Amino acid sequence: MNSANESAAFWEKHYAGMDARWGTKPNPVLTALLADLAPAPGTSLDLGCGHGGDALWLAAQGWDVTAVDVSQTALDRVAAGAAATDVTDRIHTQRHDLAETFPDGTFDLVTATYFHSPITMAREHVLRRAAEAVAPGGLLIVIEHASTAPWSWQAGQDIRYPTPDDVIASLRLDDTWRVERGDAPQRTATGPEGRTATVTDNIIAVRRTS
């Protein structure tokens, strides 16, 4: 099985076995960032959208959203959520294994929220491609795990997480970009079964100035 098929098979099984209501609320870090950095809606690209919490919220705020995932089950649930909240005209689902194919066009906002996988993938390559998809004046926002939650598939492993500076350096941005935010705050997270833990996230927001 090649990596693209392996990724699709893993995430199909993952979402098929998950409560369709999980992951349907937006990431509060993202909503706060956009209030400060992008108060006016435009076009957006949500990479690894899952059940669509961020994408559906963005559409409700007036954004025109391209929601991307490798799992058709996840995308079907996003489409159902869009229909239920009357934002179908602002949600466009696309199925991609992002290491293999990528949506066309440029966007005012590109987000990668917890874009992690137990299946090996060229993550840095995908994030650099994400930066290329940002229109002038637009934002790339990456919110990612910087510690291991007790319910993670990585629990018990000795993992070195990159710092925000590491992530920004890996994007290979030129002088047409400005770092709006790059830090690693802690928060209280809630797992699928209601268990809570203190975790650390990397929060990266970079703007293409021209």
UniProtKB/TrEMBL annotation:
GO terms for biological process: methylation. InterPro entries: SAM-dependent_MTases_sf. It is an enzyme of class 2 (transferase). It comes from the Bacteria. GO terms for molecular function: methyltransferase activity. Its EC number is 2.1.1.-. The keyword ATP-binding does not apply. Keywords: Methyltransferase, S-adenosyl-L-methionine, Transferase. PANTHER family: METHYLTRANSFERASE (PTHR43464), UBIQUINONE BIOSYNTHESIS O-METHYLTRANSFERASE, MITOCHONDRIAL (PTHR43464:SF19). This is Class I SAM-dependent methyltransferase. It comes from Streptomyces hintoniae.
